[in-house]
Write a structure and sequence with these properties.
The radius of gyration is 15 Å and the shape is globular. 55% of the residues lie in helices and 0% in strands. It has a single domain, classed as 434 Repressor (Amino-terminal Domain). The protein has five helices and no strands. Keywords: DNA-binding.
């Protein structure tokens, strides 16, 4: 996420203001110490002109063989 923010020429404070969070929240997200809510992840991605998947990785998926049915 930091790389995308720098490419967008935004400071942490500017990104935080546009996402309506504190700069400390952006610092924590960039450091991997805080998992953003879906709402925040979407807001950050939109502001950076990116997708949630590009910024935060693909969500874990479960294959059909891993899911147990009701029996």
């Amino acid at each position: 996420m930091r790389r995308a923010r720098l490419l967008a020429e935004l400071t942490q404070a500017e990104l935080a203001a546009s996402a309506e969070v504190t700069r400390q929240t952006i610092v924590a997200v960039e450091a991997g110490n805080y998992a953003p809510s879906v709402y925040l992840a979407l807001a950050i991605a939109e502001r950076l002109g990116s997708t949630v998947e590009e910024l935060f990785g693909q969500p874990a998926t479960t294959s059909a063989g891993d899911v147990q049915g009701d029996g």
